[in-house]
């Protein structure tokens, strides 16, 4: 089935090789395209590709693209959840832990997900029945690892940063669980107690691992460049570079998750909020790297607009991340050309 590149969606399967105008081989027959492939074809000015028929077109339009998770990936995710749960149990009792234990818990996670491209769908596909805090710790570890890789860090350093994300909330093991699970608004005293998890985490990691960078991430992941964070109101030059990475991952994971006191937010809203926070609160370069690598994952997803229409995102706009090209029935709508029309939600 020959279709225009702008009609491709993540999950389409090519049935012939694709070459650009000078004969460079781009994609092989049998490739199941993802968001990055579609962007690459656009960059090479490819107009049409041959794909395997999708079947019932109407049904395809309504069904979301399923994100396949292998048994190995599912196992490594649950293994990481179990690992962080044990760490919380150990440290709640005042025990220390060895670096080997942390490595064995989180390294298989990085190993088995290191080539993942659609991180948005991945995080939505990985769900655990365990406590939010444990799942959040694993998500932040994964996201911190991805951000480090997107920043061209070495594999060794990316895993170190991912480990910092994995351990960042460990100090919550010392916080009253009734406060952590409270569904209503916290009192000032209760919030002051929760803020201490950063100090507790610093002390736990320092005493267990003697790794200053990992300990500082636990201490600083709620610090903000403008000095509005906690616990020490540090400003941008005083915050460790790893803490800046984990802070972005932490905000994203928290906002896309259901918590006892807050429902998860729409995914595009979360990225817009991160973009807003990059003007004063979060490291702007790190935040832009994160958004730039997450936005292409929305290609092929259904979007609802504030004028009541719905369509499929077919191409991102590099000059305005939040104004992509959308296909509505047989029409292509460039939101960057429409001042008053914007996406209100994305169906995943």
From TrEMBL:
- Check the record and name the InterPro entries matching this protein: HD/PDEase_dom, HD_GYP_dom, HDIG_dom
Q: Which residues form a coiled coil?
A: none
Residue span, HD-GYP domain: 111-306
SMART domains xrefs: HDc (SM00471)
UniProt cross-references to SUPFAM superfamilies, sorted A to Z:
HD-domain/PDEase-like
Matching entries from PANTHER family are given as: CYCLIC DI-GMP PHOSPHODIESTERASE PA4108, CYCLIC DI-GMP PHOSPHODIESTERASE PA4108-RELATED
Protein name, entry field: HD-GYP domain-containing protein
Organism, as annotated = Paenibacillus sedimenti
The organism's taxonomic lineage, starting at the top? Bacteria, Bacillati, Bacillota, Bacilli, Bacillales
């Amino acid at each position: 089935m020959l279709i225009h590149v702008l009609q491709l969606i993540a999950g389409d399967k090519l049935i012939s090789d694709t070459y650009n105008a000078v004969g460079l081989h781009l994609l092989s027959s049998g490739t199941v395209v993802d968001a990055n492939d579609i962007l690459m074809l656009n960059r090479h000015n490819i107009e049409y590709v041959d794909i395997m028929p999708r079947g019932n077109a109407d049904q395809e339009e309504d069904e979301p693209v399923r994100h396949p998770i292998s048994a190995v990936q599912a196992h490594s995710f649950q293994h990481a959840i179990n690992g962080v749960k044990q760490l919380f149990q150990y440290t709640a009792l005042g025990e220390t832990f060895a670096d080997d234990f942390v490595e064995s818990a989180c390294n298989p996670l990085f190993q088995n997900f290191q080539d993942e491209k659609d991180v948005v769908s991945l995080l939505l596909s990985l769900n655990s029945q365990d406590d939010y805090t444990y799942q959040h710790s694993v998500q932040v570890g994964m996201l911190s690892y991805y951000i480090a890789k997107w920043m061209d860090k070495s594999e060794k350093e990316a895993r170190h940063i991912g480990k910092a994300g994995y351990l960042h909330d460990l100090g919550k093991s010392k916080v009253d669980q009734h406060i952590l699970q409270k569904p209503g608004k916290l009192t000032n005293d209760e919030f002051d107690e929760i803020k201490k998890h950063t100090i507790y985490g610093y002390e736990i990691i320092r005493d267990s691992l003697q790794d200053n960078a990992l300990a500082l991430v636990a201490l600083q992941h709620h610090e903000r460049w403008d000095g509005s964070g906690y616990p020490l109101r540090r400003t941008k030059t005083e915050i460790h570079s790893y803490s800046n990475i984990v802070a972005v991952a932490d905000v994203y994971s928290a906002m896309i998750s259901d918590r006892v006191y807050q429902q998860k937010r729409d995914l595009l809203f979360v990225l817009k909020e991160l973009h807003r926070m990059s003007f004063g609160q979060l490291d702007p370069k790190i935040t832009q790297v994160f958004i730039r690598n997450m936005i292409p994952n929305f290609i092929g997803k259904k979007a609802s607009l504030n004028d009541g229409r719905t369509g499929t995102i077919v191409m991102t706009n590099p000059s305005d991340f939040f104004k992509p090209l959308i296909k509505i029935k047989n029409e292509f709508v460039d939101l960057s050309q429409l001042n008053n029309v914007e996406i209100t939600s994305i169906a995943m």
